Structure formats: structure tokens, C-alpha cells
């Protein structure tokens, strides 16, 4: 059996994917993959996702330069979620990596405080300067 057949794809042929920074353990983002995206990720050693909004494959970093080198691909116990252990590329070594389209290190930058969502991580780079 093909290893891709072990994945429990949803009715749209997608599986949720968590990108975790290998060095820090930070959860950087959650995205989606279809069969082709997961196969390309394994082949390239860089993250390729499925963009639900654009309905096409999305090689992370193709526009922003913030690529994700993949060290490990794992699944959960039910094979219905994929975990990528990645190293973000495309930034100066002294800078924190950017994974979020808002210009932040992680897409998980909001925390619930006193009944409201508060941004608790800074914008590292203006998105206007990332996506031209």
C-alpha cells in the first residue's frame, strides 16, 4: 500500500497540517494538504500546502521567501492530522523567523485576556514589504 493511502483525507481530499519549528517547538501555523501537496513535501524536503482560498498548490515561501525546510513528517494516532517539523528559511540568522502572513513568527499570536483576543507577539516585518 502507498504510504499516502494511510492518510485519512476529508471529503474534500484534504488533511490538516501543523507546522512546528524543529528548534524551538513553537507551533508556527496550521494549513491544509491534499495528496499532491504531501507527496511534493516529502519529495522536495520543503513544505507545500493546498490553498483552499486559491484552490491551488502553495509552496510555502514562493511569494514571501519564508520557506520551510522539512525535517520530519508525522501523523497522529488516527492518521487524520499531519505534523511537519520544520526550520523556517529566508530570514537573517539574527532575526526571528516569520511564518505568518501578518509578518509574525507564528500564526498563533493572539491570546484570550479578559474576554478579548489580544495580540501578544510583535509584527517582525510589515506584510506590505513581504508580499509585493
Give the tags.
mainly beta, Ubiquitin-like (UB roll), four-stranded mixed β-sheet, globular, 8 strands, 2 helices, 132 residues
Listing every helix as H and every strand as E from the N terminus to the C terminus, the arrangement reads EEHEEEEEEH
**Oligomer class:** single chain
Q: What share of residues are in beta strands?
A: 25-35%
Q: Please describe the biggest sheet, giving its number of strands, its sense, and whether it closes into a barrel.
A: 4 strands, mixed
Molecular structure report:
The structure is a single chain. The chain is mainly beta and 132 residues long. The chain has a four-stranded mixed β-sheet, with helices on one face. It has a two-stranded antiparallel sheet with strand order 3-4. It has helices at residues 35-44, 127-130; strands at 15-21, 27-33, 48-51, 56-59, 68-75, 82-88, 110-113, 116-119. The chain contains two helices and eight strands, in the order E-E-H-E-E-E-E-E-E-H. The chain is globular, with a radius of gyration of 15 Å. The model has no long low-confidence stretch (mean pLDDT 91). It has one domain: Ubiquitin-like (UB roll) (Roll), CATH 3.10.20. Helix content is 11%, strand content 34%.
Amino acid at each position: 500500500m502507498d504510504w499516502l493511502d494511510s492518510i485519512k483525507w476529508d471529503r474534500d481530499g484534504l488533511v490538516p497540517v501543523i507546522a512546528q519549528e524543529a528548534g524551538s517547538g513553537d507551533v508556527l501555523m496550521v494549513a491544509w494538504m491534499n495528496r499532491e501537496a504531501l507527496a511534493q513535501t516529502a519529495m522536495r524536503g520543503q513544505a507545500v500546502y493546498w490553498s483552499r482560498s486559491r484552490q491551488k498548490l502553495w509552496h510555502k515561501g514562493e511569494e514571501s521567501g519564508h520557506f520551510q525546510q522539512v525535517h520530519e513528517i508525522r501523523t497522529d494516532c488516527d492518521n487524520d492530522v499531519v505534523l511537519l517539523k520544520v526550520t523556517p528559511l529566508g530570514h537573517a540568522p539574527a532575526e526571528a523567523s516569520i511564518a505568518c502572513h501578518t509578518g509574525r513568527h507564528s500564526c498563533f499570536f493572539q491570546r484570550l485576556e479578559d474576554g478579548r483576543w489580544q495580540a501578544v507577539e510583535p509584527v517582525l516585518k510589515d506584510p506590505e514589504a513581504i508580499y509585493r
